[in-house]
Write a structure and sequence with these properties.
The chain has about 550 residues and is mostly beta strands. Helices cover about 5% and strands about 35% of the residues. It is globular, with a radius of gyration of 23 Å. It starts with 15 loop residues before the first strand and ends in an 11-residue tail after the last strand.
């Protein structure tokens, strides 16, 4: 889908790339890899994955790094860009036999890190492991006999504010909630329906006492590729191989929003810092901006030449501004010239000067810009600026019937807000600054009282474990869920959930540069640098403009 780039210059690996705020520069001595620095040459389907954590809430720079390369998992003290990486002394190193680590996530730190920090790991054969990165122990194993699931683990995460429960997604299209304090059996679980929607069903185990898995979510038709909790911790966004982004209220387990890719599966997702927007990437080579409050696709971005593998909002360059004076990058670094061959003046609104937006009464509104970064199998990084004129482009067609509020804040009041009913007047303004010190909401789960839809009770003998009339009913419910998903796919093209290419703005990247010889697998933004991982097993840091420092050795 993306435009072709021409010339041999675009095939050179870059050590720096320009954006409007300046030049990002590779910090060579801050690279992390295997201790031998030997490249990872396995061409399998297990990308290099990266996790970070802070050991102190007062520090917004990561202090521990975990990354998996093939069958190996490494945990290192992360020293950022101010000190050279010491690859000879990993905190932990593990080599697995018969399976590959596919994803991992650190828990939150409560109290002393050596007592509360845990690392959650998912594997290609379906097992899950919880380890202590400070101690060389085997840790706890879940689904060890593969009685619950046999497919690959695709995404794992601890429930926000809860270091005893975690969520695991699988290539089968199911997600499971586990509790480290609950019983785990090696026998296949027997499920009963807990709640049912048109495109998802939630089950709980049919037992007298709580046991693992606590809940099973079956969503859509295809593998679940990634999920992310919202900044307020109330909502869960899930992207799947069937091309759908679905947003759930995690507490009530109701689906509150969705959209569809232009074609193909969706692989990655990220929430905006204020929780108003989500950005997705996948097999259509596009990025897609979705408005959570308006439940509609806002725009798409075209710049990659292959599947998008990782995407993220940059909270440190997302802001509200009151003028439109920005410097253009030089012609030499111009993404318009490098990617599409167009002159800078021919670019879309995200790479031209910002236009001033007016309220219905003619007053000037703050200009909002969201920075998005994406990496792809094409080995390129793309940076995108999504601005007010794009976010509010639909107001040009219906200005007299819409109102843009100037006083809404970044925080979402989840106790009074229903995304599906929030008007555009409440969702298109942003006050400067991001409140990163607000206490996160503790995610709690409802008590497992089986119900369907509006709370209808389900009989206790409703089970998936035997070929009786109840298992037939359960299989019928699953089959109906799949049919609903297939039917919905064919009806969405041309709607607000999956607009045609000409129906919404099509953005071009602010910059697009080749950073490696193998595909890029991860992008993470921090205050002073960006961290990018590649499939050759290298985790690289790029210093932000004016943040380059002389790297010192230990």
């Amino acid at each position: 889908m993306a435009t072709e780039s021409g010339g041999n210059r675009n095939d050179e690996v870059k050590t720096k790339f320009a954006a409007r705020e300046g030049t990002y520069t590779l910090q060579v001595l801050s690279e992390y890899s295997r201790p031998t620095r030997s490249p990872y040459s396995d061409a399998g389907n297990f990308p290099v994955t990266v996790s970070f954590t802070q050991l102190s809430k007062q520090n917004d720079t990561p202090e521990r790094l975990a990354f998996s390369i093939g069958r190996e998992l490494y945990v290192y003290p992360f020293k950022g860009i101010r000190k050279a990486a010491d690859l000879t002394q990993p905190t932990d190193k593990r080599t697995y036999k018969g399976t590959f680590p596919t994803c991992h996530a650190f828990s939150e730190v409560h109290g002393k890190p050596e007592e509360s920090l845990r690392l959650l790991i998912g594997f290609s054969a379906g097992q899950i492991q919880v380890i202590d990165p400070f101690r060389n122990e085997n840790g706890q194993l879940y689904n060890h006999e593969r009685a619950v699931e046999k497919s690959k683990v695709t995404c794992v995460a601890w429930l926000p504010g809860n270091n005893s429960q975690f969520l695991v997604a699988y290539a089968s299209g199911s997600m499971y909630v586990y509790c480290i304090d609950s019983q785990t059996s090696n026998l296949p679980p027997v499920y009963q329906v807990f709640k049912q929607g048109e495109n998802h069903i939630i089950f709980t185990c049919k037992t007298k006492s709580t046991r693992n898995p606590m809940f099973r979510w079956v969503i859509g038709d295809g593998a679940i590729n990634q999920f992310r909790f919202s900044p307020c911790n109330q909502y869960l966004a899930v992207v799947s191989q069937d091309g759908f982004l679905r947003v759930f209220d995690f507490h009530t387990m109701d689906m509150v929003g969705y959209m569809k890719s232009y074609f193909g599966g969706l692989h990655c997702i990220s929430w905006s810092p204020d929780g108003k927007y989500l950005v997705t990437g996948g097999e259509d080579d596009l990025i897609t901006i979705y408005s959570f409050h308006e439940n509609r696709v806002i725009c798409r971005g075209r710049g990659h030449r292959s599947w998008v593998t990782s995407i993220s909002f940059d909270p440190y360059t997302t802001s509200a501004i009151d003028n439109s004076t920005f410097e253009d990058v030089s012609d030499e670094e111009s993404p318009g010239n490098a990617v599409t061959g167009k002159s800078p003046s021919a670019r879309s609104s995200t790479s031209s000067r910002f236009s001033i937006r007016l309220d219905a009464d003619g007053s000037t509104l703050p200009l909002t810009t969201y920075r998005v970064g994406s990496v792809s199998q094409d080995t390129n990084i793309c940076l995108w600026d999504v601005t007010s004129d794009v976010l509010n482009s639909h107001l040009n067609r219906n200005r007299t019937n819409s109102h843009i509020a100037r006083n809404s804040t970044l925080e979402i009041d989840v106790s009074h807000t229903q995304p599906s009913s929030v008007s555009s007047s409440q969702s298109n303004s942003l006050q400067p600054g991001i409140n990163s010190n607000s206490a996160p909401n503790l995610v709690s789960l409802p008590s497992p009282q089986p119900s369907i839809g509006n709370g209808t009770k389900v009989k206790r003998n409703f089970t998936l474990g035997h070929k009786d009339k109840h298992s037939v009913r359960s299989s019928s419910a699953l089959a109906q869920c799949m049919r609903n998903t297939v039917e919905l796919q064919g009806k969405l093209l041309g709607t607000q959930y999956c607009p045609r290419l000409g129906d919404v703005p099509l953005l071009e990247p602010l910059t697009c540069k080749k950073l490696a010889h193998s595909m890029l697998t991860s992008i993470n933004f921090y205050r002073d640098f960006i961290v990018i991982a590649s499939q050759d097993g290298v985790v690289s840091s790029y210093a932000r403009p004016n943040k380059q420092v002389g790297v010192v050795h230990r």
